From TrEMBL:
InterPro entries: Galactose-bd-like_sf, Xrcc1_N. This is XRCC1 protein. The lineage of its organism: Eukaryota, Metazoa, Chordata, Craniata, Vertebrata. Residues 1-32, 91-111 are annotated as: Disordered. The gene is Xrcc1_1. Coiled coil: none annotated. It comes from Copsychus sechellarum. Signal peptide: none annotated. GO terms for cellular component: nucleus. Residues 16-32 have a biased composition (Basic and acidic residues).
Length: 164
């Protein structure tokens, strides 16, 4: 599946200066985005997509959030639409346990076509928004380790193989 690159960070609710949202533009560099302070109930970031294509799947790396929701929109205007409905990525007990307890607050998740809302997934978008929440633990900031967006397979030009 071809990856749709993230090209620019947009608005963000808050960011730790050591972990700004721009880190999400380089998912292979290991940087992450985190909210500025512990105790924030919700946080979010808007990112611009390098290509306007239908979205086939998402790969999201969590960094301590209990719930994640992904929205899509257009720079031409209009309302954002829900692409991935808000869902739990950590249980309440995992959220309270913290990173030292082996709960895995940084695990990732793959969300394929069956997880995405069909109509928004089939349209083309040039912006994506991620909304996170953590109502169970007020002692740590949270955010994303990475986010990767993928277009449907077969949509890109392929070069024929050369004979050996």
């Amino acid at each position: 599946m071809p990856e749709i690159p993230l090209t620019r960070g947009g608005s963000v609710t808050s960011a730790d200066p050591r972990h700004p949202a721009e880190n999400l533009l380089r998912p292979d560099d290991g940087g992450r985005w985190r909210g500025a302070a512990a105790g924030e109930k919700r946080g979010g970031v808007v990112l611009e997509l390098g290509e306007s294509k239908p979205i086939h799947s998402l790969h999201i790396g969590n960094d301590g959030a209990a719930f994640v929701e992904v929205l899509v929109g257009s720079s031409a205007g209009g309302e954002f639409q829900v692409l991935l409905p808000s869902g739990g990525v950590m249980s309440p007990s995992e959220s309270r346990a913290g990173p030292g307890a082996g709960a895995g607050p940084r695990r990732g998740g793959m969300f394929g076509p069956d997880s995405l809302v069909k109509a928004p997934a089939q349209a083309s978008w040039d912006r994506g928004g991620v909304v996170l929440s953590q109502p169970y633990c007020q002692s740590r900031p949270y955010g994303l380790s990475f986010i990767r967006v993928f277009a449907a397979p077969g949509g890109e030009e392929t070069r024929p193989e050369e004979p050996v």
